[in-house]
Amino acid sequence: MRLVPYRGLEVDKSVNEVFSMMDEFFNNSLTQSERKNGFRLDVLENDKEYIIEGELPGVQRENIQIDFENNLLKISVEQKNEESVEEKNYVHRERKIFSMERVLKFKDINSEAIEAKLEQGILTVKLPKQEIIDTKTKIEIQ
């Protein structure tokens, strides 16, 4: 007789996807879903620039760091919240510390003209495209 190790229930992949979607729907908060996957970003492109919009509700401006280096845009968030309530002889304290990071790759960006602003929990970063000069030359064969 041969022993086979128990691998748990092998459930159909589509069933797992349904449970994942339900978890994301019911646990949709900045402290759970986004904390493990990063915050939500939208990336728009037009002829002049890329526009990145990120949802950061409750995050303060001083807790966000944005860097652009080697064609990588890195947006980092580190938030620390502490709440203290005193009633009679009881002191209640809650602390929440989390950090998130998103890294996106772009090419041909004018890094000197990148702009960012935070309004009502929405971070907007504008990355202007660098003008590409066509250096192509047709060479005649003799």
Principal-axis shape: elongated
Strand content: 35-45%
Q: pLDDT under 50 segments (min length 5)?
A: 28-35
Question: CATH architecture of the domain at 40-76 and 102-128, please?
Answer: Sandwich
CATH class of the domain at 40-76 and 102-128: Mainly Beta
Characterise the protein shown here.
The chain has 142 residues and is mainly β. It is built from two helices and seven strands. It has helices at 13-26, 33-37, and strands spanning 41-45, 49-55, 64-69, 72-87, 90-105, 115-119, 122-128. The strands form two sheets. A four-stranded antiparallel sheet has the order 1-2-7-6, with no helix packed on it. The protein has a three-stranded antiparallel sheet with strand order 3-4-5. The termini are far apart. Residues 28-35 have low confidence and may be disordered.
Fill in the keyword field for this structure.
142 residues; mainly beta; Immunoglobulin-like; four-stranded antiparallel beta sheet; three-stranded antiparallel beta sheet; 2 helices; 44% strand
What's this model, at a glance?
By secondary structure, the chain is mainly β.
Topology:
Blueprint: H1 13-26, H2 33-37, E1 41-45, E2 49-55, E3 64-69, E4 72-87, E5 90-105, E6 115-119, E7 122-128
Antiparallel strand pairs: 1-2, 2-7, 3-4, 4-5, 6-7
